[in-house]
Design goal:
37% of the residues lie in helices and 20% in strands. By secondary structure, the chain is of the alpha/beta class. The protein folds into two domains: 172 residues, HUPs (Rossmann fold, 3-Layer(aba) Sandwich); 90 residues, Pantoate-beta-alanine ligase, C-terminal domain (Pantoate--beta-alanine Ligase, Chain: A,domain 2, 2-Layer Sandwich), CATH 3.30.1300. The protein is globular, with a radius of gyration of 19 Å. Pfam families: Pantoate_ligase. It is found in: Cytoplasm.
Length: 286
């Protein structure tokens, strides 16, 4: 952590672009951390990583409407820019870019990004417009904030693959840096949506991480069949109760390609509802 210094808040796209241009002209490396606000320690760990690797750190705070379906929680998603800025002041953040919706999506806006097959299964199947909204807004942010490096969290595994595909395919001159998932002391992956959970739901939600740990332990002891591992995960979650499982997937690390047996680095992907709150998580095994 650095000395407490309040970041400068910028709302205009051209203003933050000039900040980046000036810094890079002076030979300084710029890092950006795209967020939707409601910052927690997971976000702040990305800011810390950016602060370690870059000379100027910019955090974007924008609740992106195009990645929410009509029935999702866009309107109630937590927003508190002052609180976010106060947290960032202790983590070496120099600027906050907080554009209005009209800045990002002016009247007549029609363009969207389709990144192809990596966005189709799992989250893409459940939320068909989600990754197009993510890819579009990230491309816009990296155009307005053309940083040297952009920092994302491993918790959103498929999102990191979508962003990486978009960066490669469109020759975006920003390096993608993926940082480890930050967890609560009981294993629950940090998420802004955790605030929606009551105490009982919060306790039950820890079973997501516990079930993936069980799968990892089974692999460490020689189990290789995905069907057996998935059954063990489902049994543990059923025993805890109150968890509506959306999907479990085992994919080759760095891809969304499903595997039937563990033959190398593999990622377990999981999505479930606890009460009305949808949570995602993942863990590498093998």
């Amino acid at each position: 952590m650095s000395t407490t210094v309040s970041p400068t808040i910028v709302h205009a796209g051209e203003g933050i672009r000039q900040v980046v241009r000036d810094a890079q002209r002076d030979g300084r490396r710029v890092g950006v951390v795209p967020t939707m606000g409601a910052l927690h320690q997971g976000h702040l760990s990305l800011v810390d990583a950016a602060h370690q690797q870059c000379d100027v750190v910019i955090v974007t705070v924008f609740v992106n409407p195009t990645q929410f379906a009509p029935h999702e929680d866009y309107e109630r998603y937590p927003r508190d820019l002052d609180s976010d800025a106060a947290k960032l002041s202790q983590h070496g953040c120099d600027y906050v870019f907080a554009p209005a919706v009209e800045e990002m999506y002016p009247q007549g806006f029609e363009t969207s990004i389709n990144v192809g097959s990596v966005a189709l299964p799992y989250e893409g199947e459940r939320r068909p417009t989600h990754f197009s909204g993510v890819a579009t807004v990230v491309l816009k942010l990296l155009t307005l904030v053309p940083a040297n490096a952009a920092f994302f969290g491993q918790k959103d595994y498929q999102q990191t693959l979508v962003v990486g595909q978009m960066i490669r395919d469109l020759n975006v001159p920003t390096k993608l840096v993926v940082c480890p998932t930050v967890r609560e002391s009981d294993g629950l992956a940090m998420s802004s949506r955790n605030a929606y959970l009551d105490d009982d739901q919060r306790r039950r939600a820890t079973a997501l991480h516990a079930s993936m740990q069980l799968a990892r332990q089974m692999v460490d002891h020689g189990e290789r069949q995905v069907a057996t591992l998935q059954q063990a995960i489902e049994s543990l979650l059923a025993e805890v109760g109150g968890i509506d499982l959306d999907y479990i997937a085992f994919v080759r690390a760095g891809t969304v390609e499903p595997v039937e047996s563990i033959r190398g680095p593999t990622v377990v992907l999981m999505a479930a509802r606890v009460g009305q709150t949808r949570l995602i998580d993942n863990m590498q095994i093998g």
